[in-house]
Amino acid sequence: MLVFGVVIVAVVRFRRHEGRQASRRESAPLAEGASIVLLGLIALGLMAATFRTERGEDALAARPYVRISVTAYQWSWRFAYPGTGVVVDGGAVAATRHRNPTLVVPTGRVVRFSLRSRDVLHSFFIPDMRFKRYAFPDSANVFDLEFTHAGRLTGACAQFCGWDHAEMRFDVLALPPDRFQAWLTRREAA
Predict the structure, then answer these.
(1) What is the 3-state secondary structure (H, E, C) of 78-109?
(2) Which residue has the higher pLDDT, 27 or 138?
(3) Is residue 177 a contact partner of residue 109, using CB atoms and an 8 Å limit?
(4) CB neighbourhood size of 2 (10 A)
(5) What is the C-alpha end-to-end distance of the chain, expressed in Å?
(6) Structure confidence by residue, pLDDT tens digits, 61-118
């Protein structure tokens, strides 16, 4: 949009005036018009591609396998599995230094996250998945993820949020669906 505006200003400002001899560059109004149209089409094409990509990224599955409520707070994480009573809470940083809370997820299944912040702006960042979403106070950011491989990953807050921001990490344990269900059942019984 900005580029389109600059082109319009340039065309109006530098157009040929009465009584002044036209230079070779100024005598090509067709070329100017074609340039404006071309730039406009490029801008519209880029906008359309962006919206299409974003819509695909932000699409939610009709039936996620599991739902997890994630709450970020200074300076830890809380992972709750609604309907099960299972909650993993990192607690205060001073009490849990060097012990990150663990987010347990199934592999090969769609996981629906509802992310929010209890206090300030945070971000849910899993570097190995190249995935980041912001956690806003008083607003849920809902998204789906699918973990393709079993194993351990690390996550962190990638938004500076205060004094112990560097300690605001979490672990991700991706398990095959049957092992995930067994973990969930054990935690429900505890």
Answers:
(1) EEEECCCCEEEECCCHHHHCCCCCEEEEEECC
(2) 138
(3) yes
(4) 7
(5) 57
(6) 788 999 999 999 988 899 999 988 888 887 765 444 557 899 999 999 999 999 999 9
**CA 99, CA 141: separation in Å to the nearest integer?**
26
Instruction: Give the whole-angstrom CA distance, residue 50 versus residue 48.
Output: 5
Do residues 133 and 122 lie in contact, with contact meaning Cβ atoms separated by under 8 Å?
no
46-69 burial, b at 16+ Cβ within 10 Å, e below that, comes to eeeeeeeeeeeeeeeeeebbbbbb
Amino acid, single-letter form, for residue 128: D
Say if CB 69 and CB 60 are below 8 A apart.
no
Q: Which runs of E-coded beta strand occur in 108-150?
A: 110-117, 122-126, 131-135, 141-146
- At position 31, the amino acid (one-letter code) is A
**In the prediction, which pLDDT does 80 show?**
94
pTM: 0.69
